Amino acid sequence: MTVARTTGAEPATDPAPQISGANQSGVRAHNERLILSLLRRHGALSKAEIARLTGLSAQTISVINRQLETDGLVMRAERVRGRVGQPSTPMTLNPDGVFSIGLRIGRRSADLALMDFTGIVRRQIRTTHAFPTPDSIMAFLADSLPALLGMLEPALRDRVIGIGVASPFELWHWLDRVGAPSAEMQQWRGFDLVAAARAQTGLDVMLVNDASSACLAELTVGDGRETGDFAYFFVGFFIGGGIVLNHALQTGATGNAGAFGPLPSRDPRRGNGSQLIDTASLFTLERSLIGAGVDPADLWRQSGNWDRFEPHLTRWLAETAQSMADAIVTVCAVFDFPVIIVDGAFPDAVRADLTARINAAIENCNTDGIQVPDIISGSVGSNARVIGASMLPISARFLVDRAGAAA
Hints:
This protein is α/β, with parallel strands linked by helices. It is built from 13 helices and 12 strands.
C-alpha cells in the first residue's frame, strides 16, 4: 500500500470549485490531492462531476481514480441510475483508507481519538485532571493508544499515518487563572512534546494551537467548508480562535494567529489591563460556581445539560456575549470578515444561547466604519479541538493546500 504519496508542511484544506487541475504528469500528486479534497467536501462524485469541478480530462481522472482505488484511498459508491445516458459509478473516500490519532491537551482535561479517512471519530478516550504535566500527558498517551489501535484489524494498523496534537502554547502562562502550582507547569518549558510523542509511539507527530485546531475542524468537517473567509472563536477554559482566509487556515509566523484571548477587554471588577480571557472564558464560570459552593466538575466532562449551573450560567453568558461582541468589532476592523463562527466546550443549547446574545449585544456596539458580519454558531461543537487534531495529519498529507493551489 502506498498511502503517503505526498506531504505538506501546513494543514491543508478543501478546495473551492474554482481551483483547477492540470494534466501534466509532473503534477499528479497535486491532482490526487485535488480529487481527494473534492470527495471530502462534496461526498461521492462521478467522473463527469470531477471533470466539471477541476477541468481535468476524463482520461486523467480515470488514471488517478484507478491509482487511488488501488491504494485503498477511494472506493466505488452505489451506481447512479435513472438519468439520461449510461449509469455512472461515483467514487467516494474509503473510510478504512487512512487513520490518524488526535491528542488534545487541555487545562482541565485531555482527549485521545482515532479518526478514519472520512473524518469520523471511531473511538475517543477522555481523562480529567487538575492541571496537565508532561508526565501525566505522556502517561495518558501510553495507556490509551493501545486501546484505540486495538479497534483496528491488524491489516489496517499500518494505515495509521500519524498523531496530531492540539495544545495551548506556553502552558506555563496565566497560572493565576489556572490555579496550578508554578513548579509543575514550568515543566512544560523546554519540553519537546513532538519529539517525546514521536519517540514513544513511533508515529509522525504534528503540533497545532488548540484553538486553531478547533478552527481546522470547522474548516474541514464542519459548515466552514462553505465559507471562504471567517474568524472563529472557541470558548474553552481560555477563549481562543482561528482565522481562515481563502479557505485556508492561517496560523501565522509562530502559530498563534487568531489567539484572541489577549485582546483588551472591559472588566469593571478588574479595571484597566483586563483581557478577553478574563471576561469570556469558562474558567470565570468555574470560579463563580466554586464561589457559590457548586461542584464545577461537569464543565469538563462533556455533560449535555448545564441547567444545574443556573443562575451563574445566565450571568456568565451575558457578560461573555458583551465581551465577545466588543472583540468581534475589533477583529473586523483589522480584516473585513463576512462571517464570525462561535463555538466552544459546552452543550449545543449553550452555544446557541451565546450566539444569539452576541448578535443582540453587537447592536449596542459602535460599529461605525465596519460592516457588521454574520455571527453564527459553529457546527462541530465541544469536540472540535480533538477532531481538528485528528484531521491534522490527514490534511497535511492528502488534501489540497490552497496557499499553493491557485488556478
